[in-house]
Specification:
GO molecular function, one term: metallopeptidase activity
Number of helices: 9
InterPro entries: MetalloPept_cat_dom_sf (IPR024079)
Protein name: Peptidase zinc-dependent
Keywords: Membrane, Transmembrane, Transmembrane helix
Strand order of the largest sheet: 1-2-4-3
Distance between the termini: 77 Å
Length: 337
């Protein structure tokens, strides 16, 4: 489906700011033309914004300057060879854009080694152009605010390795938001070309109102109830605990057989949960680290290696926890005696 099925498209321009590579400007414009299927002219170059001690290389001032230079454009993408930051102590960015705004800028400072981009550098420019315009249209805010969101060109990362491993186009969620009749970018009202929020769309289900909860969120309420139940149980079991034999005053063998059966069952399942839970937690951690460094693709050998590593770390962690619990039991026995 086309991104603008209603036929009304935003007036979009690419504008060189300062003295960027003409080939870089053409690559940015070409990427936008191919992605959104509307004309994207390249305007005459404008001078870089004047630098002062307060706004040198700061993205917000750059965007404000670009906004003032392109009053007749619905979407304006500047291309510059200046280094762009959002704060003075931040690493230079590949590009910045105003979210739900009509201006953005692609910086070639970290994307190009020379004036003529290589094939890899052209791909990087195209990705960053799609990321900048996707942010302007609202895709990053609506669909990519969590780290576990699916890989997408609208959120390619801040390092060249992350940029190179990012997809070359928008993910399925972004594509649906751009093309679905309920959410595609609407004509300015007033002056904003952005996808509609999910709360405004006609989609049904939990995703319709922007409720993008993860399994962790759904666990919070049961965990809270469990904590309250444990507190209540401890309070109610106080009189019973006081009647149990202490070291030096009695023996656990004096307890009925049913108590021993319960103890053995609880011990078995506690150990099972401890070992399996530890291994699962380490598996989650190792897979997450691998995703952030090498990407989501796992070969069979790497998957088996991560599983074995997680099991080994899980066993060690379980032993460590049991050692702590054993130490606490020893201290309690000393106190009781």
């Amino acid at each position: 489906m086309t991104v603008f099925p209603h036929g009304n498209t935003p007036r979009t321009v690419v504008i060189p700011v300062g003295d960027p590579s003409p080939a870089a400007c053409e690559e940015v414009a070409k990427a936008l033309r191919e992605t959104f299927e509307f004309p994207v002219p390249i305007r005459d170059s404008i001078g870089a914004p004047p630098r002062t001690d307060s706004n040198a290389h700061v993205g917000r001032g750059f965007l404000e300057y670009l906004r003032g230079e392109t009053p007749d454009a619905d979407l304006a993408v500047g291309v510059t060879d200046e280094r762009i930051k959002m704060s003075r102590d931040q690493t230079a960015l590949f590009g910045v854009a105003g979210e739900f705004d009509r201006v953005g800028v692609v910086s070639t400072a970290r994307l190009l080694e020379g004036r003529e981009p290589t094939a890899l550098e052209r791909e990087r420019l195209a990705k960053e152009a799609r990321s900048v315009v996707g942010t302007m249209l609202g895709l990053r805010t609506y669909l990519h605010t969590r780290r576990e969101d699916r890989p997408c060109v609208v959120a390619p990362g801040e390092t060249r390795r992350q940029l190179d491993s990012a997809p070359t186009t928008y993910c399925e969620d972004c594509r649906n938001a751009l093309t679905d009749d309920a959410t595609y970018p609407k004509p300015p009202a007033p002056g904003d070309w952005t996808v509609r929020t999910r709360a405004e769309s006609d989609a049904s289900g939990p995703e319709a109102d922007g409720d993008r909860r993860t399994w962790v969120d759904y666990l919070l309420a049961p965990i809270g109830f469990a904590v309250i139940a444990v507190i209540e149980f401890v309070a109610l079991s106080g009189p019973v605990v006081d009647r149990l034999p202490r070291p030096g005053t009695g023996s656990a063998r004096d307890l009925p057989e049913s108590a021993h059966e319960i103890y053995r069952a609880v011990t078995f399942w506690a150990n099972a949960v401890l070992y399996l839970g530890s291994a699962f937690c380490w598996l989650f951690v190792t897979v997450s680290v691998h995703d952030r460094i090498f990407g989501p693709d796992l070969s069979d050998g790497v998957a088996i290696g991560l599983l074995l590593l997680s099991v080994a770390l899980g066993v060690f962690t379980a032993w460590f926890v049991k050692g702590i619990v054993g130490g606490l039991r020893f201290v309690a026995a000393e106190e009781w005696s």
